[in-house]
Design goal:
The structure holds 2 protein chains of 2 kinds. Chain A is mainly alpha-helical. Chain A has helices at residues 3-43, 47-62, 65-75, 90-115, 119-127, 132-162, 174-185, 189-215. In chain A, helix 1 (3-43) runs antiparallel to helix 7 (174-185) and helix 3 packs antiparallel against helix 4 (90-115). Chain B is α/β, with parallel strands linked by helices. The chains are: A mainly alpha, B alpha/beta.
Amino acid sequence: MSFEYFISILKPMLTGAQMTLLLFFITIVVSVPLGFVVMLAQKSAFKPLSWLAHTFVYVMRGTPLLLQLIVVCFGLPVLPGIGEYLVLDRFTAASIAFILNYAAYFAEIFRGGVLAIDKGQYEAARVLGLNKFQTLIKIVIPQMFRIALPSLANESITLMKDTALIYAVAVPELLHYAQTAVNRDLNFFPFVVAGAIYLLLTAILTFIFKLLERKFSFE
Amino acid sequence: MAIIKIDGLKKSFGQNEVLKNITFSVEKNEVVAVIGPSGSGKSTMLRSLVHLEEINGGSIKIGGAYLAENGKYPKAKEIQKITAKTGMVFQHFNLFPHFSVRENLEMAPKLVKKMAKADLHRMSDDYLLKVGLSDKADAMPGSLSGGQKQRVAIARALMMRPEVLLFDEPTSALDPELTGEVLNVMKDLAKDDMTMIVVTHEMGFAKEVADRVVFMDGGEIVEQGTPAQIFDNPQHPRTQAFLSKNYQ
């Protein structure tokens, strides 16, 4: 196997990796704040809102991401009446499915983070005269974020690998190009390259989260 | 003039009546020690004074205004105004772990009183000096000993300039060799005429520093008086039984 062959398969796979990364970043950037909002809605004293948020999380966590992906890509456009307005390009549709799915998981991670905050923190804030909003911004969010960081890191690594699911709706990403090369050349090697690229990406992620954990440690 | 007046205070958690009928008052500049066995309602009584517990009956008057009148509370804004007169020091310190010592002190007056930065700085320097922690201004709470944490918590409470400072077992979570540094800070405050209510198991402190000692048991005030009366000549058998176990 020549170096030229390696370069020839690497090029399209790096193009695919761009798609993988694009989906990853769009999902992270939108679903982390959305997950926070869903968590607040879950905790809301307004029951219909809380119920809606809990149902959302239940459905999103209780059904396969692959099903959600296929529903947004192929299911919505065949809905009677409104279907014709829901025809999205594949990548947009895939992004929506990923964002909704991951928002549900992030909501649960944040909820766990909030639950882990000592109740003495709220009491101290109250006795010092902070109102609910000030307590949320100054006390709850920073501590929740710190507690949630290891779980966020874990979930982000899962997301990086889950991006391969868009293979199923024919958006050309990293795995797609690897599979194409394997089929064309009857050679196992492109899968090794694909695996190595995923490992590299998750290693970078792990490193970034380690830095974040150190930066936000309370020492 | 009484700065805190409690009249017929009642509080239940479900079927469990923790405060049965508490009536007492605290004068300005007075140091009151509240002692009694675990579960006697001491902490609940103290917490109801800062509205961390809602009472079911009776009245609480702080600085002439009703925090609760016959078990009924005014609007949230009014409650906020009244509880601003009281500060609280907790058993487990409850410092904010993600803020430095200085930020712990300055956050509330900055947010609540909108104080200017220079004033805040001067004030936090003063109070850190007072509790003997000037060198720890930039430390994070996680790096402090328990005694240091509690002294920071006292300084943080003082930053809001309370008229009354409440202590909920301030040394109970500390190693025995660290209680002294906290008690010394509290003694200094007493000398400065700070009005204080201290729920404590430190009988030595109660005897030495308090103007008045209140003994609670089973949700009631059983006996109160000067430290000499309570410690040297307790009248009630329950007081005698408690002191025989907890005070030589």
